[in-house]
Write a structure and sequence with these properties.
ATPase_OSCP/dsu, ATP synthesis, about 180 residues, proton-transporting ATP synthase activity, rotational mechanism, elongated, 2 domains, 8 helices, transport, four-stranded mixed beta sheet, about 60% helix
């Protein structure tokens, strides 16, 4: 991860510029789009990291690909990275931006693992519980894992709350294994 420190510097500069212009949330959406697009396309990632392809050609591809989907700050990032010959850092910069934007807005990502997809009313209850526990709101990311049988596992930052049925069964199993009950014969 030799690119993480420079990517963080670029991301901080972009956030400061976006805050000055008052469109930091729009830039966050743009950065999520850029990061997702690069992560999904192996060809785009390979093109950005290729030392053979000129930086100006990489910028033309990005301008054509994102067109009017990205605002002027995103297009300025393409130009800046092309000028500094650091196009390979585009995905890292976009990811770092979303991380520091969430920190700036006191937002966290809460991962909720359930056996089935969350309903909107259940998601609202979980959001209320997250605010109660941490004091901040969070973006809820639902992971579906049928192995937990039922209940849920909530993870916010370093805190994990496991209310899954599989965990309760495991605790019950451990309790039986550790009991010193000897039946009378």
């Amino acid at each position: 991860m030799k690119q993480s420190r420079p990517a963080l510097r670029y991301a901080k500069a972009i956030l400061n510029l976006a805050k000055e212009q008052g469109n930091d949330a729009e830039v966050n959406d743009n950065m999520k789009l850029i990061a997702a697009t690069v992560a999904e396309s192996d060809d785009l990632d390979a093109m950005l990291k290729s030392p053979v392809i000129k930086a100006s050609d990489k910028k033309k591809v990005l301008d054509a690909l994102f067109g009017d989907k990205v605002n002027s700050i995103g297009k300025g990032l393409f130009s800046l990275l092309a000028e500094n010959k650091r196009m390979s850092m585009l995905e890292s910069v976009a990811k770092q931006y979303t991380i520091i934007f969430d920190y700036y807005k006191n937002m966290q990502v809460a991962t909720v693992t359930t056996a089935v997809a969350l309903s909107s009313e259940l998601e609202a209850k979980i959001q209320k519980k997250i605010v109660e526990i941490t004091g901040n709101s969070a973006t809820i990311e639902n992971v579906i894992n049928p192995d937990i049988l039922g209940g849920f596992i909530l993870r916010v930052g370093d805190v994990q709350y496991d209310a899954s049925i599989s965990n309760q069964l495991n605790e019950l199993r451990r309790e039986f294994d550790n009991s010193h009950y000897i039946p009378k014969i």
